[in-house]
Design goal:
7-stranded mixed β-sheet; globular; binds adenosine-5'-triphosphate; 26% strand
Length: 485
């Protein structure tokens, strides 16, 4: 599939628009249109439902070491600046950036992306390869967006837009334990906006500056943390396959030792072979990291660094005091059955809602052949979304706009709308109406025709197989319901 075709369909059918497009757009920012907002919401709802609300804490999940509980949070985007100092983001959340000083270029590139970037000078090559290129040495660029809180506007009032949702969970760990009856092992889920001032946003929504994350921090006893890591890695992979990302474009990749963060003893990425990447390349959809006790300790003690022995210790400033002081709050956990007190280990499955949406869009895009109104085979574009995430679940058409067909169709439409997103269309040839729904990814179309007037049945058409079958008008809602959930 060529990416241009998907990008053009997304705009034409209202999945995605460039932000502030009428003013020329803003690089790295995207708006979801009427179909896109439903698709992304369905993906987020599926995640929240599968991970949190329908989690069964009474039964040991397949592959899990024991039962576990799940709960949620919704934290603010702007937090106390000390959060980011202790977490390490203030000092370390940087990419290396390279500028080109050449007249006519003035390009800015991520140092680790130079080889795959294009120099704006013609004939275009990778930055540094054109005769006129004049690249600076790589320098650090912090990806956090800075803002000012309050009216004074001084540097002391500087705060940051969160670059991840995770820290809101860590700093509320104690609040959740004290205000609920959750016991370890348990997870706290959160979804919401994150912001990163990416040096080179690109590849449609893949690398945006404003995006949504769906993160879980799972707290467990250090002795079982490796098993929980494996459980979450496999469970999260299964979630994508069950929603339709099966096949060789999706893969699970374990990081090797050099790739691991200094505090991690295991990380895996769930990756997708996006069509805009070169053959053999994959882009990250979600990272599942074993983070040990790094985060809770950082917020207790202060920013941590690895010492010469490879152990984590509080980083000291030139004055011999902690460089960034932690909260001093006790974030350890006491097991009320064993009386053991310990700092929980954390497993973090961290996903991006926009990258998942983009992967589902890429996977769904299909071109095949279907007969038109005259029975002639025509190429059709069809978005084969899993019914659970499809923006519209069913469309209802009267075959013609007379003989009482619109009235029956409207009643069916009203009944469907009480349960799911539905669409009513009586304009134009019925074949054209089917095509529009195929492009929107609507799994079922219900048509009221001449036979309906005599036997009270309608046809239901399946988007993918094009199979049609007749169902009694009164059974339409149940028939669709049984197929979309
Ligand atoms: P990358 O290496 O691609 O920059 P990352 O490893 O920095 O990603 P994480 O910090 O692990 O990403 O963030 C968790 C998830 O958040 C990612 O797997 C991705 O789905 C999403 N995400 C991160 N950065 C962006 C972005 N700029 N645009 C859209 N989604 C993002």
């Amino acid at each position: 599939m060529e990416m241009e075709k998907l990008v053009s369909l997304c705009k034409r059918r209202g999945f995605l628009f460039q932000s502030s497009e009428i003013y020329g757009g803003l690089n790295g920012f995207w708006d979801y249109g009427p179909l896109g907002v439903e698709l992304k919401r369905n993906i987020k709802d599926a995640w929240w439902q599968d991970m949190v609300t329908s989690h069964d804490e009474l039964t040991v999940a397949e592959g899990a070491p024991s039962t576990h509980e799940m709960t949620g949070l919704d934290c603010t985007i702007i937090m106390h600046p000390q959060v980011w100092k202790c977490s390490g983001h203030y000092d370390l959340f940087c990419d290396m950036m390279v500028d080109c000083r050449a007249e006519g270029c003035k390009g800015r590139f991520r140092a680790d992306h130079v080889a795959t970037s294009q120099c704006p000078l013609k004939p275009s090559k990778a930055p540094g390869e054109h005769g006129k290129c004049d690249l600076t040495e790589p320098r650090e660029f912090n990806l956090m967006f800075k803002t000012i809180v309050g009216a004074m506007g001084t540097e002391e009032d500087a705060a940051f837009l969160r670059p991840e949702t995770a820290q809101g969970i860590f700093v509320n760990f104690k609040n959740v334990v004290d205000s609920t009856r959750v016991r370890i092992p348990f997870g706290i889920a959160q979804m919401g906006k994150s912001f990163r001032n990416e040096i080179t946003p690109r590849n449609f929504t893949f690398r945006s500056r404003e995006f949504e994350q769906m993160e879980i921090e799972f707290f467990c006893h250090p002795d079982t943390s490796r098993e929980w890591y494996e459980y979450w890695r496999d469970r999260r992979m299964k979630w994508y396959t069950e929603l339709g990302l099966a096949g060789n474009r999706l893969r699970l990749r374990e990081h090797d030792a050099e790739e691991l963060s200094h505090y991690s003893c295991g990380t895996a990425d769930i990756e997708y072979a996006f069509p805009f990447l070169t053959a053999g390349e994959y882009g990250e959809l979600e990272g599942i990291a074993h983070r040990g006790d790094f985060d809770l300790r950082s917020h207790m003690e202060g920013k941590l660094v690895k010492n010469a022995e490879g152990c984590l210790e509080v980083e000291m400033g030139p004055d011999g005091k902690p460089k960034y002081k932690g909260s001093g709050r006790d974030l350890t956990y006491r097991d009320d059955q064993t009386n053991e007190r310990f700092t929980p280990h954390v497993i973090e499955p961290s996903a991006g809602a926009d990258r998942a949406t983009l992967a589902f869009l890429c996977e769904a895009y299909t071109e095949d052949e279907a007969p038109d109104d005259k029975g002639k085979l025509q190429t059709r574009v069809v978005m084969k979304f899993h019914p659970r995430i499809a923006p519209i679940k069913a469309a209802v058409f009267p075959l013609v706009k007379k003989d009482g067909m619109p009235e029956i169709a409207r009643d069916i439409y009203r009944a469907l709308k009480k349960r799911f997103t539905a669409f009513y269309d009586e304009k134009g040839a019925v074949g054209r109406r089917y095509r529009r729904q195929d492009e929107a990814g609507t799994p079922f179309c219900v048509t009221v025709d001449g036979q309906t007037l005599t036997d009270q049945t309608v046809t239901i058409r399946d988007r993918d197989s094009l199979k049609q079958w007749r169902v009694k008008v009164e059974d339409v809602v149940d028939e669709i319901a049984s197929r979309v959930s």
